[in-house]
Amino acid sequence: xxxxxxxxxxxxxxxxxxxxxxxxxxxxxxxxxxxGIWGLSVAALGVVAWLLRLWIAP
Length: 58
Description:
By secondary structure, this protein is an all-alpha fold. Helices cover 78% and strands 0% of the residues.
């Protein structure tokens, strides 16, 4: 059925592709996100290790 497009359909075609927005983001901002996520993962692993040490140690 070839009827007129709804507003949501015409808007969805004009949106950026998922990978396109990252290409326009500055490198320093992408690196900052990467370092931040890495730092939080290291901190989370440290907390888990500390809790295991408290649980196992007498």
